């Protein structure tokens, strides 16, 4: 019979032995060039290393609150003096430090004039659009949703803009979505690209099709996940199906921003070269409208004026074969629309694979006045000495957009900081600044503006500070921002944009006088 004391002593001996080993063992032992043995020390188990991390207290103090989204009366468009605009910039607490500002090729701020001039007209009778493309850093409407709300509260507009017919991730902050399993998504980016489909991809980098309309409606329900409070908690409601077609349904989220649910118009971007199809539109649980869309090889936008504020919208499609659907859209009739278009796994060099005429037609029809490209995190883990290849690839994408959207401004947002474990600490990947520099060079060569996320968030070794902040501003993958962190990034970006816009307004007013 084993005495109870012996196993306890054995555990104590093992613990002491491990403590000695962890104290003596160096954090890294290089076996050869491609293989390094890393271990953690006793100290790293007891306390979190902080001495190498960046102080971001000045940044965290900018964490937006509900008060940030209270509509402010915009400054009058008539500005008499340069002093007036500088006073406005100061009053709005806009960033003046160089690390937070937009950067321009050869200090040529006119590269943003197309967008800024459109902003001045946004309160008139037109809707202007911002396409926000990015990788998984913007997925779920992070960054885009807050930027959208800020621009809409200042310049008018409502709704969440372009939304997919099938959301594979299903975690948007601004809208809930249900799609029947018959929906398929073909996409141009990452490993989804197929050369045979090169002429099919639309403005969201995808085309959506359904596989069949042979459904039976009897006793069938679909589930919508609706959040109950302004956080991530959700519950599902089950709604009876009234139509045997292929269904997609959108619903407001209470954690969304107020203008999200004020959409006035539903739009469908589509092309149906083989056969007509029918769509039934149901607002909430009330009235329905049926539309038959005839055969056409051309790209079209179908518009439906909503009868009330958006809370729930169900679209049911019937017709074989499936049309090519590029997006649904929830907009106002005027103001600003900001579209969240994530390309998961992409480095932002996929646009030149797409059909130029189709993409150009959609950009023109949507009145796109600014295009934002925010990529880079998918390149970081593959460390290389030189990124001139990436600079050239990104330059080709920017030149394509300059050709297809001559009336739009283009803003490149640089890669954010990313960290990996090195001994007891988390440190920035050694290639972050090289990738950032390649992005900035590509932007400047193409005549585009640039915003440096890496520097704005604190520079080298800043990501751990965001991860360990209270509340956390980045996730423990040391790559992606949390919703609160995304709000800070978006707030800094918004202020950088508005600062330049105010200076533009002053310059225009001076010229007019």
From TrEMBL:
It comes from the Bacteria. Pfam families: Lipase_GDSL_2. Transmembrane segments: none annotated. Residues 320-486 form the SGNH hydrolase-type esterase domain. InterPro entries: SGNH_hydro, SGNH_hydro_sf. Gene3D superfamilies: SGNH hydrolase (3.40.50.1110). This is GDSL-type esterase/lipase family protein. It comes from Xanthocytophaga flava.
């Amino acid at each position: 019979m084993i005495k109870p004391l012996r196993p306890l002593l054995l555990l104590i001996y093992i613990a002491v032995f491990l403590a000695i080993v962890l104290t003596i063992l160096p954090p890294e032992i290089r076996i050869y060039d491609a293989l390094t043995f890393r271990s953690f020390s006793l100290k790293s188990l007891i306390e979190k290393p902080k001495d190498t991390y960046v102080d971001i207290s000045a940044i965290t103090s900018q964490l937006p609150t509900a008060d940030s989204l209270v509509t402010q009366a915009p400054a009058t468009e008539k500005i008499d003096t340069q002093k007036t605009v500088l006073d406005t910039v100061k009053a709005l607490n806009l960033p003046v430090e160089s690390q937070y500002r937009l950067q321009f090729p050869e200090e040529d701020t006119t590269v943003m004039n197309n967008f800024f001039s459109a902003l001045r007209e946004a309160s008139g009778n037109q809707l202007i659009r911002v396409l926000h493309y990015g990788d998984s850093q913007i997925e779920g409407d992070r960054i885009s949703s807050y930027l959208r709300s800020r621009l809409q509260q200042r310049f008018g507009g409502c709704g969440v803009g372009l939304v997919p017919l099938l959301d594979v991730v299903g975690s948007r902050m601004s809208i809930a979505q249900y799609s029947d399993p018959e929906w398929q998504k073909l996409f141009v980016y990452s490993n989804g690209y197929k050369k045979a489909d090169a002429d099919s991809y639309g403005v969201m980098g995808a085309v959506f099709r359904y596989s069949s309309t042979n459904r039976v409606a009897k006793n069938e329900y679909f589930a919508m996940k609706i959040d109950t409070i302004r956080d991530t908690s959700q519950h599902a409601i089950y709604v009876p199906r009234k139509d045997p077609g292929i269904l997609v349904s959108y619903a407001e989220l209470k954690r969304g921003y107020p203008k999200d649910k004020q959409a006035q118009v539903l739009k469908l971007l589509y092309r149906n070269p083989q056969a007509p199809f029918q769509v039934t539109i149901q607002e909430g649980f009330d009235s329905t409208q049926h539309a038959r869309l005839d055969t056409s090889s051309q790209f079209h936008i179908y518009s439906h004026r909503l009868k009330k504020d958006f809370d729930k919208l169900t679209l049911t499609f019937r017709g074989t074969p499936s049309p090519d659907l590029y997006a649904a859209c929830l907009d106002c009739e005027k103001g600003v629309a900001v579209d969240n278009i994530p390309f998961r796994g992409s480095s932002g060099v996929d646009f030149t694979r797409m059909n130029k005429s189709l993409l150009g037609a959609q950009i023109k029809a949507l009145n796109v006045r600014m295009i934002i490209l925010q990529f880079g995190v998918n390149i970081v883990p593959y460390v290389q000495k030189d990124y001139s290849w990436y600079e050239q690839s990104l330059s080709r994408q920017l030149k394509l957009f300059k050709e297809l959207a001559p009336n739009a401004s283009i803003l490149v947002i640089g890669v954010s900081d990313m960290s990996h474990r090195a001994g007891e600490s988390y440190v920035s990947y050694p290639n972050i600044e090289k990738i950032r520099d390649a992005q900035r060079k590509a932007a400047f060569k193409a005549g585009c503006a640039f915003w440096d996320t890496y520097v704005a968030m604190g520079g080298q070794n800043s990501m751990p500070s965001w991860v360990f902040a209270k509340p956390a501003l980045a996730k423990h993958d040391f790559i992606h921002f949390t919703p609160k962190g995304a709000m800070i990034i978006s707030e800094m970006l918004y202020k950088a944009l508005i600062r330049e816009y105010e200076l533009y307004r002053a310059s225009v007013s001076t010229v007019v006088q």
